[in-house]
Amino acid sequence: MTYLLRRLAFYLVAAFVAITLNFFIPRAVPGNPAEIILSKYPDLTPQAFKALEQMIGGVVGTGSLWSQYLHYWSNVFHFNFGVDLANYPTPVSQIIDQAIPWTLILVGTATVIAFLLGTGLGILAGWRHGGWLDRSLPVWMFFQAAPYFFIALVLVDFFAIEHHWLPVGQGFNGEVTSPGWTWAFISNALEHSLLPAFTIVLTSVAGWMLQMRNVMITTISEDYVIAAQAKGLSKGRTIFTYAARNALLPQLQGFGLALGFVVSGALIMEIVFSYPGIGYLLLEAVQNKDFPLMQAIFLVITFAVLVANLVVDLIIVFFDPRARTREAA
Amino acid sequence: MKSLANIWRNLPLKAKVGVGLLGFFILAAIIGPMVQPYDPSAQTPLTMAAPSAQHWFGTTQEGQDILSQVLTGIRLTLELALAVGVIVTVVSVLVGVTSAFLGGIWDDVLSLITNVFLVLPPLPLLIVLLGYLSQQGQTPTIIVLSLLGWPWGARVIRAQTLAIRGRDFIDASRETGEKNWRIIIFDLIPNEISLIAASFVNTVLYAIGASVALAFVGLTNVNSWSLGTILFWAQTDSALQSAAWWWFVPAGLAVALIGTSLVLLNSGLDELGSPRLRATRGTAKVAGHRIWPTDPTPVLAVLQADRGRFGSFLYSFSRRSMLEGNAAGGDL
Amino acid sequence: MAPILEIDDLSVAYRSAGGDVHAVEHVNLTLNAGEVVGLCGESGSGKSTLAYGATRLLRPPALITGGSVRYRGRRITQGGDPADVLTMSNRELARIRWREVAIVFQSAMNALNPVLRVQDQILDAITAHLKMPKHEAREKAATLLDLVGIPRDRLRAYPHELSGGMRQRVMIAMALAADPEVVIMDEPTTALDVVVQRDILAQIVELKETLGFAVLFITHDLSLLLELADRIAVMYAGRLLETGTASAIMREPAHPYTRGLLNSFPSLHGPRRELVGIPGTPPDLRDTLPGCPFIPRCSFTVPACSEVDMSLARPTGTGTNGEGSDRPGLITTDSHLTACPIVTPEEASKEGVLS
Predict the structure, then answer these.
(1) Which domain holds residue A12?
(2) How many whole angstroms separate alpha carbon B186 and alpha carbon A268?
(3) What's the structural domain count of chain A?
């Protein structure tokens, strides 16, 4: 229990840092973001502009830095991220709400699949150290080292453009169907998510596999695995309950640590496929200098990663009896 | 020199492949600008041309030679990645070693900072940072990537330093009155060389990946020809839809191969540093039979007598086996 | 005395790029049913390698280069020929493991699975070999803990929640789960303090009396064996230097190394005397020189030392009074063997033993 509480406190600190960073970055970089907005969006009403200045700092200071900071915090707590510039006057939170489900479903599922698949393969590769699965690792490493979007481009080229088996991009085909709980829509959406999901899995499996394989190799020389063999236990029980169950712990911790990168990669993937998720939204926001949207997305993504980390911590505590009494690392 | 030769000999095959591949690209980076046939930005009327004798990698929509772009790109990308690698390694060693060595409140504070930056997802932060900067180029990218890249190495190095610090020979040095900084430089760091090397390689890998990704979404200077920028223009000018594979394949392949070489090199360094990963490698075969680490201890006489399935099959045709009346060829 | 485990001419090597390390060389050792044999030697002498090699639990790069390990437990042989562990198939090996030959590992903290409760680990050992319904197995696990003196509520505990002594007892309980005939104990008390050590050793003796298994007790502490073991084998640099009953070894140690070991620890009573260690270090096991491996450190060497056959094989036609051996320097009783040539035939004949 204490372990989890300490982790929670840590994530709160990280969230605090993220929010503070979000506040200071537009004020700290050279140049004046507010001016840029003025030039790009000349039809902004004065109130909108004022609200904007509160968020990113102004040409004319609207109160001391500290009061701006406090005001910013209150906005965040009320989920008030301001009004979107490109789609004025739609509130930013509304725009984000539309994009989140797409990302969650695609990125969430694909990442979990990649982790499970990679870990499973890693267990086998580590147990048969020197076997063909183990020796095929360099091939997997290539897929991991190649920029994921490049693999994506190649796959799109092959599957969608040259062979027309799968759609080129987008979340669904707007001409054929529209969002709703209909089978037509869901099947269409699934079809459109196949290639992105496949790419995400293909490019990240190697990392998980390699990591699990290395941990397995170290774990099977532990005394308790030798003891399990001495006890004459079945191979399955030895591999899974004695070796893999212990190897899983550092693997899960690695997953937690890598979540930030995993999410980053998936975002780029959305961009390649023009998939209507948060990543794509972020890119559009940057290209449009849509600062309110940019800031909000940053916070949303960061919070999501922190929550995911907490979930992983919960899973680790579930699997490791020692963690329940141990101090946070 | 001798130890270098020794290191080379002990590297597994995949690491040697990695080194060779990386060496090729470093060479390309160095001599690239001298051998490139055209100015990468020079436009010609020969637009979207497939690879030919004049343009080995074909041309872009503006008629620019892709080979020249790729050569420039390799150099720019490697420069950036190496710069980030050096900066990050220095910072992470400083932070990691200081934090572990000084302990106490220093450790707590530095660790907290490290962990916070570790948990925050880097790419959104990078995108936001670069999005606000009105000028985008090589230097801001280097700074931004370095700012976000040091926590990984710092954490790993701190863990290793903590482990070494507890060992007796450090205490011995302390007892004899060695100054702290001397202990750090002469006792501590030599024991962490392989870890620092691995961290450096990882950082370069991360820098390449991140910079290419950022360039791809157009956040770095789109007028300088880094490998990511080439892909950016390929995407923007719809190379895909025009089936102009030659536009994005060479650049992407270059990134992929550089990345692969680094990963191979790293796994080789891993095995070098961790004897257990290495030990089972060279002894996997005894008397022609593959031994798994979890098999019962092999018995030499049994292995030598066992020809395996295929061997037994062949043996059954031999005169000796028929004389012995063995099962396989038995009923003759 | 009915032999239950016969290790015959066993050699184990570790292969490496720099040459094979001969960890065990031509060792002959017999364990009789119900007896306690102590295997004594310093670190690196090969005693653990011998035990784990005989049960084929060594990991690569270990390789068994020669010999046989014959098991004569009634359940396996069914009155027929003994089974050679080294030539067994994996399935036969699985039947021998734990059910016939169980192991108590040196470090209980490392040998217990950190993520499984004690109960589950003991149950694993039981259900892998004995067919019984779940509730019976659980009752048996609880009984085993009773046997070693651990309160039953500890069944639900994880290894890290137990004290060192308790963990070691759990290991012993686990080893007895399938009613083995032979229990190999690899330095079971080395990591514990002396008081706990005493308790556990007493427990082991009691269990042995009750359940009737044979024990191969590995340790570096000869003093422990003098009290605990029926017979003792002294191992050095991969070879057995001397074997004999505990009382014979204590009263008339033959090999200079054994004598050195006995001189290395003080007795609680008696006059104070100077503690003499054994100068020098064990040899590099990559080169096996002929003859006795102790030569470099021995103060009594004679030329014959480099020519002796170290395998301590039972000579043909031996009776209780040692007839029939023609090798110089070999004391031949059933119970006391060494290859050291400085124990001359004349000395040996003084004890009423023929050479």
Answers:
(1) 2-77
(2) 44
(3) 2
Please indicate, yes or no, whether residues A134 and A210 belong to a single structural domain of this protein. Answer: yes
Residues A225 and A184 both lie in one domain: yes
* Contacts C97 to B, Cβ<8 Å: none
State whether A109 and A61 are in the same domain: no
- Best B111, B113, B132, B216 residue to mutate vs chain A (most A CBs within 10 Å): B132
Please indicate, yes or no, if residue A289 is contained in any of the structural domains: yes
Are A67 and A142 in a shared domain? no
What are the residue ranges of CATH 3.40.50.300 in chain C?
3-229
Q: How far, in Å, CA of C95 to CA of A180, rounded?
A: 61
- Please judge whether B282 and C17 are an interchain contact, meaning their C-beta atoms are less than 8 angstroms apart: yes
- Hey, are the CB atoms on A25 and B129 less than 8 Å from each other? yes
Give a three-class secondary structure readout of chain C: CCEEEEEEEEEEEECCCCCCEEEEEEEEEEEECCCEEEEECCCCCCHHHHHHHHCCCCCCCEEEEEEEEEECCHHHHCCCCCEEHHHCCHHHHHHHECCCEEEECCCHHHHCCCCCCHHHHHHHHHHCCCCCCHHHHHHHHHHHHHHCCCCHHHHHCCHHHCCHHHHHHHHHHHHCCCCCCEEEEECCCCCCCHHHHHHHHHHHHHHHHHHCCEEEEEECCHHHHHHHCCEEEEEECCEEEEEEEHHHHHHCCCCHHHHHHHHCCCCCCCCCCCCCCCCCCCCCCCCCCCCCCCHHHCCCCCHHHHHCCCCCCCCCCCCCCCCCCCCCCCCCCCCCEECCCCCCHHHHHHCCCCC
**CB-nearest partner of B296 from C17, C66, C93:** C93
Is residue A170 domain-shared with residue A282, that is, in the same domain?
A: yes
ipTM strictly over 0.95? no
Residues of C in contact with A229 (CB under 8 A): 57, 97
Measured from the Cβ of residue A82, the count of other Cβ atoms closer than 10 Å reads: 20
Domain boundary among A77, A112, A133: A77
pTM of the predicted model as reported, rounded to 2 decimal places? 0.80
Query: What's the rounded Cα separation, in Å, for the pair B93 and B154?
Result: 6
**Structural domain includes residue A91:** no
- Are A302 and A16 within 8 A, CB to CB? no
Contacting subunits of C (3+ beta carbon pairs below 8 A):
A, B
Range of lowest pLDDT (A197-201, A290-294, C53-57): A290-294
* Residue B287 sits at the chain C interface (C-beta within 8 Å): no
Which of A142, A265, A298 has its CB closest to that of B260?
A142
Same domain (yes/no): A239, A161: yes
Assigned CATH for C3-229: 3.40.50.300
Residues C103, A228: C-beta atoms closer than 8 Å? no
Please say if the pLDDT value at position C86 is more than 80. yes
CB of A313 closer than 8 Å to CB of A77: no
Question: How close B211 gets to chain C, by Cα (Å)?
Answer: 42
Which residues of chain B lie closer than 8 angstroms to C52, CB-CB? 297
CB contact under 8 A, B283 and C16: yes
A contact test, residue of B21, B77, B119, B291 with most A CBs within 10 A: B119
Task: Give the gyration radius of chain C's Cα atoms.
Answer: 21
CA distances from A35 to A57, A68, B134 (A): 11, 18, 11
Cβ-Cβ contacts under 8 Å, C57 against chain B: 296-297
pLDDT band at C39 (very low <50, low <70, confident <90, very high): very high
C204, β-bridge pairs:
none
Most confident of A228-242, B231-245, B293-307, C293-307: A228-242
List of domains in chain B: 2-42+59-279 (1.10.3720.10), 285-331 (no CATH)
> CB distance C111–A227 less than 8 Å?
yes
Of C12, C59, C97, which to mutate for an interface test with B (greatest number of B Cβ within 10 Å)? Answer: C59
